[in-house]
Design brief:
Shape: globular
CATH architecture: 3-Layer(aba) Sandwich
Order of helices and strands: HEEHEHEHEHEEH
Radius of gyration: 14 Å
CATH class: Alpha Beta
Number of helices: 6
Number of domains: 1
Number of strands: 7
Largest sheet: 7 strands, mixed
Helix content: 40-55%
Strand content: 15-25%
Oligomer: single chain
CATH superfamily: Glutaredoxin
CATH topology: Glutaredoxin
Length: 164
């Protein structure tokens, strides 16, 4: 059995090989365009996120590690909301009903968007693996791109970094 860290490193190495074809953002790149429907019936775009630090969490409701991380993301979204953090959970490949149930089950206070056709996959790599964490500063620059699980303390450290 692979250790979670080893699996994340292997995934990152494989993605590095696929990155040119997928145009996965690297730290220092401008965040790719984003336009998705939310579980609340609205549309969220990358332009709406500019001016504030943003944390994009690509997940699936069936993903065990995603479910493990969600309570920490909920707590951290509340903790840093007053400092301007925007958290957006992006469900890839599922339907709105599943996402609404997930939001209810975990009392998710942040925006949940649905990407049923995996349209973000070419630009963010979302849907290749779950979870995927993308931390973007207030200027719209990707600062941290992390495929795979993150501990609550690692997520918080990444949030603090984009709040500077």
């Amino acid at each position: 059995m692979m250790l979670p860290r080893a699996a994340a490193l292997l995934t990152a190495a494989l993605l590095a090989l696929a990155a040119p074809a997928l145009a996965i953002p690297r730290p220092g790149d401008a965040a790719p365009p984003l336009r998705l429907s939310t579980a609340g019936g609205k549309t969220i775009t990358d332009a709406m996120l500019r001016g504030k630090p943003a944390y994009l969490n690509f997940f699936a409701t069936w993903c065990g590690p995603c479910r493990v991380e969600t309570p920490s993301i909920v707590a951290l979204s509340k903790k840093y909301a007053a400092r301007g953090l925007r958290v957006v959970g992006i469900d890839v490949g599922e339907n709105m009903g599943m996402v609404k149930n997930f939001a209810h089950d975990y009392n998710v206070p942040y925006v949940l968007a649905v990407d049923p056709e995996s349209t973000t996959r070419p630009s963010y790599g979302g849907g290749l693996y779950f979870p995927l964490h993308v931390f973007i500063d207030a200027k719209g620059i990707v600062r941290i791109y992390h495929p795979g699980e993150m501990s609550a303390s690692d997520i918080e450290a990444a949030i603090v970094r984009i709040l500077k």
